[in-house]
Amino acid sequence: MARSDxxxxxxxxxxxxxxxxxxxxxxxxxxxxxxxAFDLYKAVQSHSENVxxxxxxxxxxxxxxxxxxRNTTTAEIAxxxxxxxxxxxxxxxxxSLITDLRSxxxxxxxxxxxxxxxxxxxxxxxxxxxYFLSEIRGLDFKGNPEGSRVKIxxxxxxxxxxxxxxLFPSGSLTSSxxxxxxxAVYLKALWKYPFxxxxxxxxQFFISSDEVVTVQMMALVQESLPxxxxxxxxxxxxxxxxxxxxxxxxxxxxxxxxxLAALESKLTYTDFFTEASKLVRKEIDVFLPRFKVEESMDxxxxxxxxxxxxxxxxxxxxxxxSNEALKxxxxxxxxxxxxxxxxxxxxxxxxxxxxxxxxxxxxxxNHPFIYMILKGNTILFVGRLLRPMSQAEKTxxxxxxxxxxxxx
Length: 408
Known about the structure:
Order of helices and strands: EHEHHHEHEHEEEEEEHHEEHEEEEE
Number of helices: 9
Distance between the termini: 65 Å
Largest sheet: 9 strands, mixed
Radius of gyration: 22 Å
Number of strands: 17
Helix content: 25-40%
């Protein structure tokens, strides 16, 4: 029955910039996580020119909300997240996933901010703490929503190392707010093979065949890197590893300056991992622009269209969280990625043909491309660069002092 008096839950996802589990659940978590990443990327493609999104950040929050839901609300969230295993296995999978993702270069934390007079059921609190490693803090949303907003902003700022300030504008939380779920993901990784600053030069970036901008083009010269040409995708793929074991950026560069839209329309989860498995180390020159993308997105309507409208309606059933009638109000994600010389602060067929391809010895990322940052085979961030920062807009990022020796 519809609940016309249901106060909203404000769900805010903050991301800057899965491995784990064993056997069947490990495979399931990897497949469902990456499929959701592709589904989300396709859903946000029309949001803006440059796109950066952290699927894993949003996934963790939604998975926790699923634990507090019942009936249609549960089924819809599970469908969007590709969840199809018993709940006990699912919980163990998320605990292992979150634990495994944490590392010296990747910080991932979740916190529940609850109206201090609301009674949250102990079972839900236990699930949040034990399986999602989420802390709980009571705030006075009813009496002091503005003060509560400031305290949540402070928590976000602290856990993103001052990169996200004043995310929630005045008035964004109200006296009807009962629960804010926040997740912060922060990646700061150095390249295993840094770009030498002495080779950085002004260069052209072709936004399209008709529009060109001047950028600071970095160069990595004669380095042995995983690379391949995909006939199916009509694109080059290049892997740039980070110094921290298991972390890597994969760039997919279409042949045509105007080829990004065609690549996005045909790229699938299966295609990406099938083609990426063919990467072979070759000595190659890579040219990549410095770039910085900061993106803020309200994902509520996107999630509705992806298949979970009930959670945002008065028919929402989150009765495993509290005896109050609740619905999701907002889902906001903000992501920031900056790439410099030092690193990143973020079918089956019965017949086939084999064709030899003459691989280029240079990869010039001088036109729009897709990039993904992974740990192992888990997609952490996915985005596209269509319009990099120009020479006039360039900014610098300060990395900690440490030897930046090249590995050969």
